[in-house]
# Entry
Amino acid sequence: MSEFEKVEYKPKPVREILLEMKNLSGLMIDLAYSAALFNDKDLAEEVLELEKKVDTLAYLLDMTIMIAARDAEDAEALAGVAKVAGATDKISDAAADIAVIVKQNIGIHPIVTEIFEKVEEHIARAIVGEKSVMTGKKIGKLNLTGRIGVDIIAIRRGGDWIVNPSNDEKILSGDILIARGTRLGISKFREIAEGKIRRIVGVKEDAAG
Amino acid sequence: MQQDSQERFKEIVEKFVELKDTSELMIDLAYSALLLNSRELAESVHRLEEYVDKLHTEYEMAVLLSRFKEEEAKGILGLIRLGVVTEEIADAAAEIAETVLRGIEPHPVMKLVIEEADETVTYVNVSENSPLVRKKLQEARIPEETGMRVLAIKRGDKYIRPRPDLEINAGDTIIAFGYAEGEENLKKLASPNEFGKSDQAGDPIS
# Structure
């Protein structure tokens, strides 16, 4: 039996809540497909965690909207916001449905994964170790995109998510990084994050990856 | 026999990739429709939703007709569920677009959420003599050259997500958004004959 968080109203701008819902739901789709196609249970777990977070945000948004509407005009304008928030919530539910395919060991037919690997980029998660060369460095400085063709698309720091982090974002020890890239780039990325590789050297890959 | 099954699954994968890409593209288009309060984009999303329904049926048929073996049943179930999810995502995108079609003025909050306002969406045809033809999106450097960001490429009835390695063809329609100055630049780049002749002082486009 999963536990449901009790949602209490706290003042937070509608803009911030909706933006977070939009960003998280978008990230979840990417993570979920990757989890399913490459049978990655860790990623599936992240998606299910995120889904809870989005659900909580959806409640909070509803409450905020109710308080914000003072007259018919407000209500008309805010109905659109509620509808859009509802749609982002549906998107996050859809992503969670994909994650469940992995979690329940249903899986995707292996031939499909095999063909898919050729066309799709990999997404993977890595935990930043204390000894990693990444620790304490800004993303822009690491230039992972240029060197190994890997983009960091999100950072989980404790319970907080930073989606599409900027180049100025500093990586800390213990961060969980979600990155996208070719298969080779991603495996290199993992080793760098975990501190197994102490120097970032470019990987040579042909176009086929 | 193995070869044969590879072939059959190839069709399934192709259909799935299209479902997945189209549904995700719809989300991008739907948010943009909202941001730009563009009925045209919102209508595109609605048309795509119908297209996805059709595609989803074809995909399910292809999966069911794959003559899978008993031990493959789970993997097949996974494929069916994936298809359902793409359809759900497409529906969610259509709901976002619907708010535009219903004429609900986007709440100011929405514009803050979906980035800067004051931008417009533009549809630009790529003519034969455009330097963009046969270039990959990555090489075309459209954002750098014009300031416009590409939302999608329309090719015939299909909408294609702007992946870096997507090659631009003559006859494509580029759907992009940005500020008005960028729109002119993009038109000159995509259809040089119609727009390039006037020797305006502007950013040189090579």
Summary: The first strand of chain A starts at residue 122 and ends at 127. The two ends of chain A are 42 Å apart (CA to CA). Residues 204-209 of chain A have pLDDT under 50 and may be disordered. Chain A touches chain B at residues 14-15, 18-19, 22, 26, 29, 32-33, 36, 76-81, 83-84, 86-88, 90-91, 93-95, 97-98, 101, 105-112, 115-116, 119 (CB under 8 Å).
